[in-house]
């Protein structure tokens, strides 16, 4: 006799969406910085911070179970 448990899919879809939006914002900041010919490093730092936040959101999203 086989006992199978119904497993919920891993990952919070909402956090994946947040991570994707953060990556889009990071890309926009990078493009804006490049268009300004890198006059200031503020946008580069903002892009790095947004990318790091996206990574954190995606990793946290792996450990939060989906709702039914």
Low-confidence stretches: none
Shape, please?
A: rod-shaped
Annotation, overall tally of beta strands: 0
Overall pLDDT confidence: 85
Q: Which structural category fits the helices and strands?
A: mainly alpha
Strand content: under 5%
Can you describe this structure?
By secondary structure, the protein is mostly helical. It has one domain. The protein is about 65% helix and about 0% strand.
Keywords:
68 residues, mainly alpha, rod-shaped
Summarize this structure briefly.
The chain is an all-alpha fold and 68 residues long.
How are the elements arranged and paired?
Layout: H1 13-35, H2 42-63
Helix pairs in contact: 1-2
């Amino acid at each position: 006799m086989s006992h199978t448990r119904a497993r919920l899919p891993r990952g919070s879809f909402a956090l994946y969406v947040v991570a994707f939006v953060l990556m889009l914002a990071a890309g926009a900041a990078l493009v804006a910085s490049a268009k300004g010919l890198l006059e200031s490093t503020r946008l580069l730092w903002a892009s790095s911070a947004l990318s790091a936040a996206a990574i954190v959101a995606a990793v946290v999203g792996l450990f939060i179970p989906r709702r039914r």
